[in-house]
Design a protein that fits this description.
single chain, alpha/beta, Rossmann fold, Dihydrodipicolinate Reductase, domain 2, seven-stranded mixed β-sheet, 12 helices, 18 strands, globular
């Protein structure tokens, strides 16, 4: 009997998840989205069924997920937490890429009560970077530093923003207003997003700027490393423009009144930016990630650097952000579908990386899709 998978959301990343899973004829994919136009891209694919539905209006997912072995949540971040809660209540395992702002561990008790494995934050960063840290944390005796630099960018830079969004624009704007948490000397430090701008050189790309965002997420609770930070990468100059918008309330959720009508500035800004930040058909993008992990194993100190540079796939017309985020998600989904016993409860990706066989499986799955992680090892004096 074919295994049934429900995918909630067929957007910029969700569609890549669906098509990757549908390559395996043993899977029957059921896709839900409130945009009927997005569902037409699956027409003619035999093992995909589509349903035009507004998930926000569904209070109970029991009927939607009947006989489903695994659910993947690829909804926008603003509806991610409630969507995950509804999935858990159906006692269905789930892999989630919604990147919602709420603390997922609030649902840990309920998730265990329903005997569910809920893998959250399962994209490229957070996601793949967490898997790498989880793997090294299990391999080494002590980790002293973890740094992640990551960004998705258009291949061709266009002023003024020099940026386009590989996922929901409002989720990007959320990154620019949410305070950034990181660890220094073992203590949590909070700074504004878009702060501490520095420049790094990326072979094949050039100079990029890195700035603080709140990307450590679950790592703040699940691992104990005295120095940890995550920074977002953009082309130089982008951060200053977004700071100007943020500091002048263009990204505010506080309602304002204009001629008797109330609206939230961030919603208007998101609408206006979407036309500038939307990739044209066939427009190429890149994703770059650099992870640095320093630590000790035995009597020696080591520094591990992981570099990933991925590009738009012309053959399948799939964006790099959809590839790196979506295929990390489908790799973990296959772990569950193959019967791998992952921890019950809220399961951040770093838990998955603790198992060397899980780590190797995911790296090999990505490599099969030409997403190559390059590892450099330095023995420190």
């Amino acid at each position: 009997m074919n295994k049934k998978i429900a995918v909630l959301g067929a957007g910029l990343v969700g569609h890549a998840i669906v098509k990757d899973l549908a390559k395996d004829e043993k899977y029957e994919i059921i896709v839900y989205d409130n945009d009927a136009g997005k569902l037409t891209q699956f027409n003619g694919i035999g093992n995909i069924k589509t349903h035009h539905l507004d998930l926000e209006k569904e209070n109970d997912f029991s009927g939607l997920l009947k006989d489903v072995q695994l659910t993947i949540s690829a909804v926008p971040g603003f509806m991610g937490f409630e969507t995950l809660l509804k999935i858990i209540k159906t006692s269905t395992d789930v892999v989630d890429i919604a990147f919602f702002p709420e603390d997922p561990f609030q649902l840990d008790g309920l998730t265990k009560e329903h005997n569910v494995t809920a893998v959250i934050d399962c994209g490229v960063a957070p996601g793949l970077c967490n898997i790498i840290l989880g793997y090294q944390n299990a391999q080494m005796d002590d980790i002293t530093r973890y740094e992640c630099f990551v960004g998705g960018l258009p291949k061709v830079r266009r002023m003024p923003f020099q940026y386009k969004a590989g996922f929901s624009p409002i989720d990007v704007l959320e990154e620019y207003i949410r305070p950034a948490r990181f660890i220094e000397f073992g203590k949590e430090i909070i700074k504004p997003a878009l702060s501490d701008i520095e420049h790094i050189e990326v072979p094949g790309v050039g100079t990029l700027e890195a700035f603080n965002t709140d990307g450590l997420r679950t790592l703040l609770k699940t691992v104990h490393v005295p120095f940890m930070k995550e920074k977002t990468l953009r082309y130089p100059g982008h951060a200053q423009i977004m700071k100007m918008l943020r500091d002048n309330d263009f990204l505010s959720y506080k309602e304002i009144d204009i001629n008797g009508k109330k609206f939230k500035p961030i919603e208007l800004t998101s609408k206006l930016l979407f036309k500038n930040w939307q990739f044209a058909q066939g427009e190429e993008d890149i994703t770059y990630m650099r992870v640095i992990i320093d630590g000790k194993k035995g009597e020696s100190n080591y520094s591990f650097t992981y570099n990933l540079l991925d590009s738009y796939d012309k053959k399948t017309e799939t964006s790099s952000m959809a590839r790196t985020t979506g295929y990390t998600c489908t790799s973990v989904a296959r772990l569950l579908l193959h019967g791998k016993n992952l921890p019950k409860g809220i399961c951040p990706p770093e838990y998955i990386g603790r198992d060397e066989s899980n780590y190797n499986f995911i790296i090999e799955e990505l490599a099969e899709r030409n997403i190559i992680l390059h590892e450099e090892i330095k023995k420190l004096v």
